[in-house]
Write a structure and sequence with these properties.
This protein is α/β, with parallel strands linked by helices and 328 residues long. It folds into two domains: 230 residues, Spore Coat Polysaccharide Biosynthesis Protein SpsA, Chain A (Alpha-Beta Complex), CATH 3.90.550; 73 residues, TATA-Binding Protein, CATH 3.30.310.50. It is built from ten helices and 17 strands. The relative contact order is 0.13.
Length: 328
């Protein structure tokens, strides 16, 4: 499945604590929020992603590159002039193709079942909703008993609040909706596209999602999100226990032999690649089938130890096989 992640935000309200880092790259328990989002999407079967860039695009590009180290394929679309939320998605039309796709903000944290959202998508627009006791900072969504969306209220005052259901900025969209977004100009989902779709009678439904959601738009919300992760209120996508590292490698079999010889006496399991368990947890090393590289997965500390051992063997045995580039 395909997903577009909106990552062009500057995060003006967070600048007092961000030091100018793009909002999606703010650390959440030591890992960039956007990396958590990519992990969530991967968990839910979205392996082809397009990131829309505007503010400091090189920071995000350099971190994620082609996405291989994170288990996904990533493309980028950079906007010299900000196109708005809907305009940014329209700019990804060549990536989207002809299948329903997901749109997600890169500056919010959640642990929703996004597969379920796609399963329940019936055409037009499906908006993932969250219930909020203090809904003023968000866009309110009015729905009937059948979930059909009847209206939107963008960041109302208390006098206008008529529901606790808010838009999370996560949408399942049918590709034909791109025809309703004018290309090359600033155009937003909430302010521009959705009211137009309501007028035209295009199907729009809202689904209240189970799980955690937080927009980290303010310092208070950002710190609260970190506390929620520490307390287990927010289930970290990918967890702290399943980092994934991909190491380019000229000779996969040779590296596996060297690692196996070094770890044989420590009770390594060779039934499926190489698996070791130690004081810092469990780690698994195996060659990738589609290119000259190996992948490490498991507990964070154990993965780091296994990578350090691979690099040590590469140096000491003069293997010269790690981190090579095509053509070398």
């Amino acid at each position: 499945m395909k997903a577009v992640i909106l990552t062009g935000g500057e995060g003006t309200r967070l600048q007092a604590i961000s030091g100018g880092v793009p909002k999606p790259m703010m650390p959440l328990l030591g890992v960039p929020l956007l990396e958590r989002t990519v992990a969530l999407l991967r968990e839910n079967g979205f392996d082809s992603l397009c990131l829309t860039l505007h503010y400091q695009p090189e920071v995000i590009r350099e971190h994620f590159r082609d996405g291989a180290a994170f288990g996904v394929h990533i493309q980028y679309r950079t906007e010299p002039v900000a196109l708005g939320t809907a305009g940014a998605v329209r700019n990804c039309a060549d990536f989207i193709g002809g299948e329903p796709f997901l749109v997600m903000s890169g500056d919010s944290a959640c642990d929703f079942d996004l597969r379920e959202l796609m399963r329940r998508h019936r055409g037009g627009v499906t908006v993932a909703l969250s219930t909020q006791a203090e809904p003023l900072p968000y866009g309110l969504v009015l729905t009937g008993k059948d979930g059909r969306i009847t209206g939107f209220l963008e960041k109302p005052t208390w006098e206008r609040v008529v529901t606790d259901r808010v838009s999370t900025g996560i949408y399942a969209l049918s590709p034909d909706l791109l025809e309703h977004i004018p290309p090359g100009i600033k155009y937003d989902f909430a302010r521009d596209l959705f009211p137009r779709l309501l007028e035209k009678g295009i199907p729009m439904q809202g689904i209240v999602m189970d799980g955690y959601w937080c927009d980290i738009g303010s310092p208070r919300a950002y710190y609260q999100c970190n506390l929620d992760a520490l307390d287990g209120v927010y289930r970290l996508p990918g967890g702290e226990l399943t980092p994934r590292r991909v190491l380019p490698c000229r000779d996969r079999a040779r590296l596996m032999r060297a690692m196996g010889e070094a770890l044989a006496e420590f009770g390594a399991d060779f039934s499926d690649g190489l698996t070791v368990t130690g004081s810092r947890g469990r780690a698994h090393l195996a060659p990738l089938a589609d290119r000259s590289a190996v992948v490490l997965e498991g507990d964070r500390g154990a993965v780091r130890d296994l990578e350090a051992l691979a690099r040590k063997l590469d140096r000491e045995q003069d293997l010269r096989i790690l981190d090579v580039r095509p053509g070398e």
